[in-house]
Amino acid sequence: MEIRGPVLLPARREDIELETIDGLTLVGELALPVEHAPVATLVTLHPLPTAGGFMDSHILRKAAGRLPALADLAVLRFNTRGTTSPRGTSAGAFDGGRAEAFDVAASMDFVRERALPHPWLVGWSFGTELALKYGRDHDIEGVILLSPPLHRTTAEEVAAWAGDDRRVIVLVPEFDDYLRPDEARERFAAIPHATLVAVAGGKHLWVGENQTRRVLTEIVAAVAPDALPLPVEWDGDAV
């Protein structure tokens, strides 16, 4: 069977709830490898909820659907405050990236309580703003930024990562709607150790199986390189 589209490969999937320090309950899902302990953990931060972003935004859903089986990764997805998906609605209301700091903290509290190993923040669009603003406050291996718009993140918040040796991986689509590779190189130059990957033909939403595979490959290259190359065929059961 070809691995593409919405296919779900085997994983131990659990509906979870996260509790924020300001008293909200956020809904989410944890996907774990079936047969092995995870080698690392992806804590995913979804695109802008006021523009349709949620925990099921397709790259994040496909990461949870494939990477526990293909790369032995744990994948945590959740709806930030006020966001709705088929999993349910998280309490609270969208706050433009301010009170969402508590949502990121709640996800990291969950990672610590479950002793999930080697956590990385994986942000997409609005989620990259949360990763850049608040990731340095938490015990993570690094951040992976997909289509960062840098609308809400200040130059000072970007530059603060220069003094932090944790990894910063930036995937910038060639035809992004908000930040394209040349400008991204200028704006991330404040972080000398950042790795910027310009993706030829890519667009902000990473539509199409080729773009999905490229993004998932770059994530695994950073987090669990021994799992590469990711297979495109699956011989076992699928959901």
What does this structure look like?
Helix content is 27%, strand content 23%. The chain contains 6 helices and 10 strands, in the order βββαβββαβαβαβαβα. The termini are close together. Strand 3 (40-45), helix 1 (58-71) and strand 4 (73-78) form a beta-alpha-beta unit. The strands form 2 sheets. The protein has an 8-stranded mixed β-sheet, sandwiched between helices. Strands 5-6 form a two-stranded antiparallel sheet. It is an alpha/beta fold and 239 residues long. Helix 1 (58-71) crosses helix 6 (209-223). The longest helix is centred in the last third of the chain and has 15 residues, at 209-223. The chain has helices at 58-71, 100-113, 126-134, 155-159, 181-188, 209-223, and strands at 12-19, 25-32, 40-45, 73-78, 84-85, 88-89, 119-124, 142-146, 167-173, 195-199.
